[in-house]
Amino acid sequence: MAAEQTPPPIPDEPKYGGFTRFEIELEFVQSLASPLYLNHLAALKYFENPAFVAYLAYLQYWTHPPYLKYLTYPGPTLKNLELLQQERFRRDIIDPDMMAMLMASGAKSAMEWPNSR
Questions:
Q1: CA 67 – CA 114 distance, rounded (Å)
Q2: What are phi and psi of 19, to 5 degrees?
Q3: Who has greater pLDDT, 30 or 7?
Q4: Residues 106, 35 contacting (CB under 8 angstroms)
Q5: pLDDT class for 3, splitting at 50, 70, 90?
Q6: How confident is the model at residue 91 (pLDDT cuts 50, 70, 90)?
Q7: Cα separations (Å) of 61 from 19, 22, 56, 65, 94?
Q8: Which SS3 state, helix, strand or coil, does residue 100 take?
């Protein structure tokens, strides 16, 4: 995260392994942009854990300002975060075909983006 993007420090904010909660959650929510990572989480059965599903719902705050501006890849990050709110998607992402479809969709969007500007 660039220095100009770092939010102002909160006095006495606890650190976890040297990082703030904001930094840890930013890194995690951005990792959700990767279909491979989503498939990995599904294989480890994280999406079957009600506490983890509740955490995914909590992360919806990233869809609103002022947090939105900190996302490097807001399109796929927010799309996948939205999809993860659906039980069926959490169940289906274990399927390699679903993962491949998401990867192809992301690649297509990335290729079309410069022409859409």
A1: 25
A2: -120, 150
A3: 30
A4: yes
A5: very low
A6: very high
A7: 19, 12, 10, 8, 26
A8: helix
**Nearest-angstrom CA–CA distance, 54 and 58:** 6
Q: Where are the beta strands (DSSP E) in 21-93?
A: none
Assigned superfamily of 16-116? Mediator of RNA polymerase II, submodule Med31 (Soh1) (1.10.10.1340)
Residue carrying the six token digits 């420090």: 9
Name the residue ranges covered by the structural domains of the chain.
16-116
Token pair of 53, please? 């599903």
Q: CA-CA distance, 7 to 36, in Å (whole number)?
A: 29
